[in-house]
Design brief:
- The chain is an alpha/beta fold.
- Helix content is about 50%, strand content about 15%.
- The protein is built from 9 helices and 8 strands.
- A hairpin with a 2-residue loop joins strand 4 (about 80-85) and strand 5 (about 90).
- It is globular and about 50 Å long.
- The structure holds 2'-deoxycytidine-5'-monophosphate.
- 2'-deoxycytidine-5'-monophosphate (DC) binds near residues 38 and 134.
- 2'-deoxycytidine-5'-monophosphate binds near residues 16, 42, 108 and 137.
């Protein structure tokens, strides 16, 4: 196989609202790769638990629904344009609400849920040519990824971005409340025993506090091209 057709695996990790999803999606579009939002999978399990009236702290019950859930990503044909389906229903909007944000931490800390979802993620990315974003992609899901990026931004900047994103969906939330929620989730993400948010030693750091989405995308695509065709 020629180097120029080599398909690599790109792992993008970072804290909540650091711009990972938008950036990862656009990187996938530019490279013609598959985009997988691993956080969407934890969100889908949380949504299912809430809909079924299952207590998110009931580890065994949540693990059972995670095992049974049919979570798929479908592409409308354009690379990067993947949307998530839960048991046959498109749930892209339903999984991104403050209610899900409030209830997701015990689901993400559940070791059985992580084991089930990590396996699904590895399966989805087994052929390479994938951009996956999350918290543990470079450390646990694809420790062999050819390119690992760890995105950072100040909590204040991330809160401003999340507020704007919610406002575009008609959800108005005070900045201070979003900031508190982000700080709480940072703490939970970094301090859980299984799959904590952590920079892989060989990940390249990208502080996006003062970068536009386009600049972030360009930087990652540049790093990717250096690895696809050295
Ligand atoms: O990236 P996000 O905000 O959509 O992620 C939602 C939650 O899912 C986040 O609070 C932590 C969890 N998560 C995780 O534990 N591991 C991942 N690989 C991705 C997300």
């Amino acid at each position: 196989m020629k180097n120029s057709t080599k398909k690599i695996t790109i792992a993008i990790d970072g804290p909540a609202a650091s711009g990972k999803s938008t950036t990862a999606r656009r990187v996938a579009q530019k490279l013609g790769y598959l985009y997988i939002d691993s956080g969407a999978m934890y969100r889908a399990v949380t949504l299912l638990a809430l809909r079924k009236g299952i207590d998110v702290h009931d580890a065994a019950a949540v693990a059972r629904i995670a095992r049974e859930a049919d979570i798929r990503f479908r592409s409308d044909g354009a690379p990067g344009q993947t949307v998530i389906y839960l048991n046959g229903e498109e749930v892209s909007r339903e999984i991104r609400t403050p209610d899900i944000d409030r209830n997701i931490s015990p689901v993400a800390a559940n070791p059985q849920v992580r084991e089930i979802l990590v396996r699904k993620q590895q399966e989805l990315g087994r052929h390479g040519g994938v951009v996956m974003d999350g918290r543990d992609i470079g450390t646990v899901v694809f420790p062999q990824a050819e390119l690992k990026v760890f995105m950072q931004a100040s909590a204040e900047e991330r809160a401003r971005r999340r507020q704007k994103e919610l406002a575009q969906k008609g959800i108005e939330v005070p900045l201070e409340q979003i900031l508190q929620e982000i700080r709480r989730r940072d703490w939970e993400d970094m301090n859980r025993t299984h799959g904590p948010l952590k920079k892989a030693p060989d990940a390249l750091e990208l502080d996006t506090t003062h970068l536009t989405i386009e600049e972030q995308v360009e930087q990652i695509v540049k790093w990717a091209r250096e690895r696809i065709d050295p």
